[in-house]
Each structure stands twice: as structure tokens, then as C-alpha cells.
Amino acid sequence: MYIVVLPAFGIFSEVIPVFSRKRLFGYPAMVVATALIAFFGFMVWVHHMFTVGLGPLANGIFAVATTIIAVPTGIKIFNWIFTMWGGKLRMTSAMHWSVGFIITFVMGGVTGVMMALPPADYQYHDTYFIVAHFHYVLIGGTVFSVFAGAYYWWPKMFGRLLNETLGKIHFWFFFIGFHMTFLIQHFLGLWGMQRRVFTYLPGQGFELPNLVSTIGAYLMAVGVIVFAINIVYTFVKGKPAPDDPWDGRTLEWATPTPVPEYNFARLPLVRGLDAFWLEKQAGNKTVPPAEPYTDIHLPNPSILPFMMSLTLFIAGLGFIFKEQYHPNFLYVGILGIVLTLGVMFLRSVIDDEGFHLHKDDIEREEAKGVNV
């Protein structure tokens, strides 16, 4: 989970400073915390196995590691909060998801520390308490970050702004539905409801909580449907997005929309963290180049990389099915490998020349006022 959620932490570290109008608080501490989470993330996996009988030594070692990993995670939470503290908050849809993430992930983290203790985990294990915790950290972390990143980078990806009203409706349906679905499952677990069991006997007090949980799941579904409607509406009637709709701080917002294949015709000059903000504070509308004009070489658009992936996938299936179904699948695997190598050879021969944008073309574009 910790490795999966690290990209989510990166997304929120991009979104929160922009809509707080402040630099990310404690940047060095954030970097160290990220490295520590990545390091300890490889040392905590046995907390899923506290009840299998590994013994007190193994359980104790991994309990300590699981507890320690909460420290760098807590550092990140405080850094995001202090970034917002005293800032000029702009509560866009992306910022709604970021604030909702902090609330949700802290709740999931608290229950995670509870389960890091083997004696307590013996009581929680295989109950709905585990289900609730798992969804609080994974959905509260990764899914919330996907939605935050979608609203934030959508104008740069597709040149149109997602509708903010629909975005906030999407957030509130999903956020309320999420907590209705999974908050009550903590109590169901403490009351003894097992997971991995598809039904339960009547008269145990599980009926009403499960009904509340089901209603919450439907609210989450409504939120996702609203998001889908927002996407369709944006492509049909969405407002064209300017190059820098959020007053961004990083280099992607210094590129034109739609973004050219080469991003920047010349490498941009980076003077420090929040490079685009630094240039705007200096009165520059764009990031100055750090090198003279040179020709840009890019690969040609081609279907051959997709064909390589497809034939390699076929080869993998052939070798797997050889053991499970029939030895003749070995020939399917060999054929897939041969086709993969053949397509790789064609790629080298056909598309080796590539696509070139010459410096004279770039100069002509800049003369027309196009920011390249």
C-alpha cells in the first residue's frame, strides 16, 4: 500500500501549494519522508501475517517497522496542513479532493497503527475492521488522488476545463458515500462481522449498518456517474483552457495548450524550486531558455510498439498455458517471441530516421508569437 500511495502523495504535493498560493512547506522534510516511506515500505509486509504463527520475534520486528512508517507519513500530513495554513485557499474541485484526502487518510492511518500491534491485530484480523481500514487508505489515498489529478491536469491534457460545479457535486456524493460505506464497517468488525463470508445470520445487529453501507456505495456510484457526465459535457461544451489556468508553479504550465510533442523547443532555465512561479515573480511570462536552438529529434508515430507488446503478451500466455492446459501451447509462446523479435527489427529499420523539427521551423513559429 505504501508504494502504491507514493504517487498519490506526489499529486497532492503539486495541487495543495498551487491552490494555497504558498510554496510547499518543509520541502526537504517531504523528500526525506518520501524516501523513508519507500525504504520502510519493503519491511512491513508481514503485518498481513501476524496471525499465521510466525512467533513473537518476527511479529515484533515487523510491528516496529509498521509503527515507524507512520512517522514519515505523519510528517507529510503536517507539511500539507502547514502549506494550507495562512494561505489564500482556492477551493477548486482538485482542492476539495486534496482536503478530503487528508481527512480520510488520517482516519485510515490511525486504524493502521492499531493493526500494527500483533495482540490487537489478533482481534481485528479477518473482520470487517480490516476491510474498512484497507479502503480508507487505498481509496482515500489513490482514488482521491486520481480525481484530484484529473481535475488539476485535465486542461493541460485536453485543452478544456472540467466543469467546477459538476466537479464539486461529484466530490460531495463520493466523499459522503465513501464515509457512509466504510466508516460503519469499522464498528461491524469490532462487533464480530467476519470478512470473506458472503452472508450472516439474522438477529446479530448487522442488518442496519450494512444497509447504511450499501446506501453509501450507491452514493459513490452516483458521484462517479457525475464525473463521467462532466467529461462528456466538457468535450461538448467545455470552456477552452488557457495555457496556465491555475497560475501554476511548475514547468508544465509554461508550455502552450495543446502541448507540442517536444514540450520545450529549448531546455528551460530552472532557477530553483517552483520554477514557473519564480519567473512570474520576476515579471517573465515564460521560462527563459537555457540553451541555444538545436534540431529536435523525435520518433515517428508508429503502431509497431503496440505490436511488440501484443506479441510479447501472446508469448507469455503460450508459456503459461503450456503448463496448465496442453504442451502444444509451447509453440504459441515460441511464435510470440519470434514475432516480437521480428517487430523489434522492423522498428529499428523502418522508424529509425525519426521525426525532426529544425531550428529554422522553431524560429518561424516564435516569430508568429507561438510560445515554443
Keywords:
mainly alpha; two-stranded antiparallel sheet; two-stranded antiparallel ribbon; 3% strand
Helix and strand layout, with pairings?
Elements (H helix, E strand, L loop, with lengths): L1 H19 L6 H14 L15 H13 L1 H15 L8 H23 L2 H7 L3 H31 L1 E2 L2 H27 L16 H31 L1 E2 L34 H7 L14 E3 L5 H21 L4 H22 L4 E3 L1 H9 L5
Antiparallel strand pairs: 1-2, 3-4
Helix pairs in contact: 1-4, 1-5, 1-7, 2-4, 4-5, 5-7, 5-8, 7-8, 8-9, 11-12
Relevant CATH superfamily of the largest domain? Cytochrome c oxidase-like, subunit I domain
CATH 2nd-level architecture of the largest domain: Up-down Bundle
Uncertain ranges: none
- Tally the beta strands: 4
What's the number of structural domains? 3
Reading side by side through the largest sheet, how are the strands ordered? 1-2
Coarse structural class: mainly alpha
Q: Classify the helix fraction into a percent range.
A: 55-70%
The third-level CATH topology of the largest domain is: Cytochrome C Oxidase, Chain A
User: How much strand?
Assistant: under 5%
Mean pLDDT reading? 90
Number of helices: 13
Distance between the amino and carboxyl termini? 40 Å
Oligomer: single chain
Name of the CATH class of the largest domain: Mainly Alpha
Give the overall shape. Answer: globular
Task: Round the Cα radius of gyration to an integer and report it.
Answer: 26 Å
- Describe the largest sheet: 2 strands, antiparallel
